[in-house]
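Example 221.
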Amino acid sequence: MRKIVVAIDGPAASGKSTVSKAVAKELGFTYIDTGAMYRAFTEYVLRKGVNPEDEAACVKLIPEVTIDLYPDGKVMCSGKDVTREIREPHVSGNVSYIASYKDIRLALVELQRKMADKQSVVMDGRDIGTYVLPNADVKIYQIASVEERAKRRFLENQEKGIPCTLEDVIADVEKRDRIDSSRAFAPLKPAADSILLDTSKLSIEETRAKVLEIIREKTGI
Ligand code: DC
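Predicted structure in complex with 2'-deoxycytidine-5'-monophosphate:
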């Protein structure tokens, strides 16, 4: 079968990763969670005691950072298993700063393009359809209301035993939307040729089915 590249973008907690993972599994493609890469870099910045708002100091760390994504979801960053920690509030609350630094983005984008070069992928993020993989075979832009997204993330955190309140999660999602959409380089926005999918009223299963239908329609697989 020919190589197929699927880009799924959208704002924080819009359910992209759950759905992308399920769709990739069903199609036998590799799932690439680019948000996890920005999160891993953020964890490294915090681990080193560097201020995430200090762009020059964060950029200086680029040569020290290695990020590996494993098929089972494990994330390794410079010798440490960060799978769990990258979902915790101290990382979520700082990741948008790191993701706004152009040099860090360029380094991670290079890794992302390499991964999509050699295999069929479902890659989720913010700038996949617009910047990382502009020639993707399928581009989906997934949205949902702030309340719905915050509720989903809150329940997910509860399941994982990550302490937070719904108010905290709403504030975090709103803050990240604001920073992600307003950054100068590769901001969050739909690609002109993306298909808009509003999941506010869809279950995970319905969203998964819809995304698969779009991929099959667009690629003929
Ligand atoms: O999808 P997520 O919540 O795990 O993403 C974490 C942060 O990384 C999010 O605030 C925006 C940023 N990000 C990005 O700027 N570009 C990407 N391709 C993926 C994530």
